[in-house]
Amino acid sequence: MKMYTRNLLAVLAITLLFTACASEKQLEEITQQSEEEETTNWEESTHPEEPVVALPGLPDDVAGYTQWLKLNAEPIPPQGGGDPHNGTKNVYVNQTRDTIAPNGTQQFPYPDGSIVVKDATRPGKDYIGLIAIMRKKAGTNPDHNDWEFTEYLRDAPDAEFSLKFQGRICWGCHAQVEDIDYVFTELE
Ligand code: HEC
């Protein structure tokens, strides 16, 4: 009889142990699930209308640039006589107003890691055909405030952008505004 009780107790103990393990594992799964759900919801509620993907052919680090701080208040119209970036333009930067204009006045130079993106809709067209990018990367181009210049073009609304111009041709002209860190468009 004594032997029987001991066995029963042992079985009970094992069963309890197993149940405890199982429920602990379940709890873990539930926690993980709800963490995943929270992450998804957070992303959805931040940018509900616009998925953050780069336009085809553009580098990933400019994905979602239209949600960045826009430097110009009104679109910049095409300039007569050989506009280097012909079209109607907007200029964006991946910085906050507080960072680049503490106390309301824009400060120069731009911080390392800054990315300035200009998009242009060509005259008579209704899609973005030009993307010009200035990236500030410490050490890349010390003679020109460490800006890396690249320009991408496409000539159809569903076409991929391709890299067309970069480097000297760009900073040669942008050097005119060296005093405001090579960026013509100032924060409005
Ligand atoms: C002949 C002069 C000239 C050349 C060459 C030039 N740019 Fe510009 N760029 C401008 C001017 C002027 C603006 C101001 C906005 C506007 O009117 O388009 C500008 C604006 C920009 C902007 C928005 C920030 C700013 O400075 O206002 C970017 C980014 C840019 N250019 C990149 C480039 C790249 C990349 C190249 C080389 C492929 C290039 N630029 C060549 C004159 C030039």
Question: How would you sum up this structure, described in words?
Answer:
- It is a single chain.
- This protein is of the alpha+beta class and 188 residues long.
- The chain has two domains: 1-46; 60-180, Cytochrome P460 (Chalcone isomerase).
- 30% of the residues lie in helices and 19% in strands.
- It contains three helices and six strands.
- Strands 1-2-3-4-5-6 form a six-stranded antiparallel β-sheet.
- The longest helix is centred in the first third of the chain and has 45 residues, at 2-46.
- It starts with a helix and ends in a 14-residue tail after the last helix.
- The model is unreliable at 37-45 (pLDDT under 50).
- It binds heme C (HEC).
- Heme C binds next to β2, β3, β4, β5 and β6.
Helix content: 25-40%
Order of helices and strands: HEEHEEEEH
Order of adjacent strands in the largest pleated sheet:
1-2-3-4-5-6
How many domain units?
2
Low confidence ranges: 37-45
Mean of the pLDDT scores? 83
Question: What distance lies between the first and last C-alpha atoms, to the nearest angstrom?
Answer: 91 Å
Could you give the topology of this structure?
Layout: H1 2-46, E1 69-70, E2 88-93, H2 97-100, E3 115-121, E4 128-136, E5 147-153, E6 162-166, H3 168-174
Antiparallel strand pairs: 1-2, 2-3, 3-4, 4-5, 5-6
Bound molecules: heme C (HEC).
Heme C binds next to β2, β3, β4, β5 and β6.
Keywords:
about 190 residues, alpha+beta, Chalcone isomerase, 6-stranded antiparallel β-sheet, about 30% helix, about 20% strand, globular, binds heme C
Task: Provide a brief overview of the structure.
This protein is an alpha+beta fold and 188 residues long. The protein has 2 domains: 1-46; 60-180, Chalcone isomerase. The protein is 30% helix and 19% strand.
